[in-house]
Write a structure and sequence with these properties.
The protein has 9 helices and 27 strands. With 468 residues, the chain is of the alpha+beta class. A hairpin with a 4-residue loop joins strand 14 and strand 15.
C-alpha cells in the first residue's frame, strides 16, 4: 500500500502545479486538430491542425525537460532517459480530436472553466489526459529520480481516424517494454472488443424527395444533432418533441433533430439523432418509395444496438454483448449512405459481418461494403503489470475494483504488452451541462484529473519496479 506521507507530498505537488497544468491543457484545447487530408502535406500528413497540436505538445514536453522529437509529423516522442534506455515504460496519448457538431453551447476550441470542470474539445479525449500524463513523468524528474528504464510519452496525432501515427511508430521503433494509454476508463482495462466498420449504400434514388443530407460527424460517434432537407410543405408536418422544422421558402423544409450522443462503444442511454430523423420522415411520408426502403434499413440498424435488427447479435464471456450503431448518414451521387460501427466479441468477426449485412442490404435493395476491421485484443489480467495497476488504483482511491474489458478501441491494442488506464470514471455523475467524449460540450472534472495525475505518478513508480 502506498505510504500516506508519500501521497500527501504528491497532493501538495499537484496543488502547486495545478494552475500551470490547466493553462497547458487550455493551450492544446484551443488548437483545432481534426484530421484535414485536403490540406495535408510534407511534415503534416494529417493536415495542419494535428501538426500544430503535435508541435504544441512537443513544446510542452521540451519545456518540462524531456528529450522531445517530432518524427515527420506522424508522431512524437518525449523521453526522460533511464539507466537502461533499451527498455521503455511508455504512455501514449493523442492530440487529434473528432469534429465538432452544431450542438455546442460554446466555441469548442476556446476552453472554459466552470464550477470545477474544463469544457472544450479534447479536455477529456485526449488533450487533458496527455498533459496529466506528462506531468506524472515530470514529478519524478523533479524528485531527481532516474528510473531503471526510460519513461517515454508517445504523442499521437491520428487516433480518431486511421491510426497511421501508431503504424508509423511501430515501423520505426522497438515495441515498448510496457505501455499504458490514458484514454479510457479506470480502474484498468486489459482487453478491447473488435472494431468493425462499413457502409450501406442505396440503389439509385428515383424521384427523390431528400434534397440534401449529411448527418453525423464520425463513424464512431452517435450524433446528438442531425438535420435533413426535404421537398415538403411545412403546413403538413406535425410538431414533435426533439424535432425542429424550418421552411426554406423554396418548397423545401429542413428537419433538425436533437438527441443524446455518445461514443459508439457505449450506446446504452443514447438517442441517435439520425434515427429520430428516419422515424420522422417515415411516419410523415416525406420520402419517395426508393428512399423509404433505405430508411427502413437504417431503422433496422439504429433502433437496436444489440445487432438483432441486422442479424449480428453475438456475445462471449470475455467481452459480453456485441454493439452496433449508425454514426453518419449522407446523400451523394444520387444514392443514400449509412455508416456502421460495431464493437464485437471473440464469437463474431469480419466474415460473419459481411455475410449478415450484405444479406440485410439485399432485402432492402441496397449494397454493403466493409470499411475496416480490427480484431479483439487482450492481455493476461493476472500478469504483473495489470495487477500492479489495479493495486495502485485501489490503494490511492480506497476502492475495491477489478480489471475489465471495454468496447472502445484505444492505442493499447496496437502494442504487444499494453493496457488502457483511466482517466474516466463512468460511475461518477456529472452535471447535465457537461458533455461526453465525442459529444457536444465535452468536459472533464478538475478533481478527477487531479486524482488521475496522482494515480499515474504512483503507477509509474510501481511499473519501474518490475524486473524485465
Amino acid at each position: 500500500m502506498a505510504d500516506t506521507e508519500f501521497l500527501k507530498n504528491i497532493d501538495a505537488w499537484i496543488d502547486s502545479k495545478w494552475e500551470e497544468i490547466v493553462s497547458e491543457i487550455e493551450t492544446l484545447v484551443n488548437i483545432p486538430s481534426q484530421e484535414d487530408l485536403e490540406h495535408a502535406g510534407p511534415g503534416m500528413p494529417f493536415g495542419p491542425g494535428p501538426r500544430k497540436a503535435l508541435d504544441a505538445g512537443l513544446d510542452l514536453a521540451a519545456r518540462l525537460g524531456m528529450d522531445a522529437q517530432c518524427h515527420e509529423g506522424y508522431v512524437g516522442t518525449a523521453d526522460y532517459k533511464g539507466l537502461d534506455d533499451s527498455k521503455k515504460i511508455c504512455q501514449i496519448a493523442h492530440l487529434d480530436t473528432v469534429p465538432c457538431g452544431p450542438g455546442w453551447t460554446q466555441d469548442p476550441h476556446k476552453m472554459t472553466r466552470r464550477d470545477g470542470f474544463l469544457i472544450g474539445r479534447g479536455t477529456l479525449d485526449d488533450k487533458g489526459p496527455f498533459v496529466i500524463g506528462l506531468y506524472a513523468m515530470r514529478y519524478w524528474h523533479e524528485q531527481g529520480i532516474q528510473f531503471p528504464y526510460t519513461m517515454r510519452m508517445i504523442l499521437g496525432s491520428n487516433e480518431e481516424t486511421s491510426l497511421r501515427d501508431v503504424e508509423y511508430y511501430n515501423e520505426h521503433f522497438e515495441q515498448p517494454t510496457f505501455l499504458f494509454t490514458p484514454d479510457a476508463e479506470f480502474p484498468v482495462c486489459y482487453g478491447e472488443k473488435g472494431i468493425y466498420q462499413g457502409v450501406f449504400t442505396s440503389g439509385p434514388i428515383a424521384d427523390g424527395k431528400i434534397v440534401s443530407w449529411r448527418a453525423g460527424e464520425a463513424f464512431n460517434a452517435i450524433p446528438t444533432d442531425a438535420s435533413v432537407t426535404v421537398q415538403a410543405d411545412l403546413a403538413g408536418l406535425p410538431e414533435r418533441s426533439g424535432i425542429a422544422l424550418s421552411d426554406n421558402g423554396d418548397g423545401t423544409v429542413t428537419i433538425a433533430a436533437k438527441g443524446k450522443g455518445g461514443h459508439a462503444s457505449m450506446p446504452a442511454g443514447t438517442v441517435n439523432a439520425i434515427g429520430m430523423l428516419v422515424d420522422y420522415m417515415l411516419e410523415n411520408d416525406t420520402v419517395s418509395p426508393s428512399e423509404r426502403r433505405f430508411l427502413e434499413l437504417q431503422k433496422a440498424l439504429i433502433d437496436d444496438y444489440t445487432g438483432s435488427g441486422v442479424d449480428c447479435a453475438a456475445s462471449d464471456e470475455l467481452f459480453g454483448d456485441l454493439t452496433i450503431i449508425g454514426g453518419m448518414a449522407w446523400l451523394e451521387d444520387g444514392r443514400l449512405h449509412q455508416s456502421v460501427d460495431s464493437r464485437y466479441p471473440t464469437t463474431f468477426g469480419r466474415e460473419q459481418f459481411e455475410q449478415a449485412l450484405a444479406s440485410v442490404a439485399e432485402r432492402y435493395g441496397a449494397t454493403y461494403a466493409t470499411d475496416n476491421d480490427t480484431e479483439p485484443f487482450y492481455i493476461d489480467p493476472n500478469g504483473e503489470e495489470i495487477q500492479r495497476l489495479i493495486r495502485v488504483y485501489n490503494d490511492v482511491t480506497g476502492e475495491d475494483r477489478t480489471p475489465f474489458t471495454i468496447g472502445g478501441g484505444t492505442y493499447a491494442r496496437e502494442f504487444k504488452n499494453a493496457a488502457a488506464f483511466g482517466p474516466e470514471m463512468p460511475w461518477v455523475t456529472y452535471p447535465d451541462w457537461v458533455g461526453p467524449m465525442h459529444g457536444d460540450d465535452e468536459g472533464m472534472s478538475e478533481e478527477q484529473l487531479k486524482l488521475s495525475l496522482k494515480i499515474y505518478i504512483v503507477a509509474l513508480n510501481e511499473l519501474m519496479r518490475i524486473e524485465y
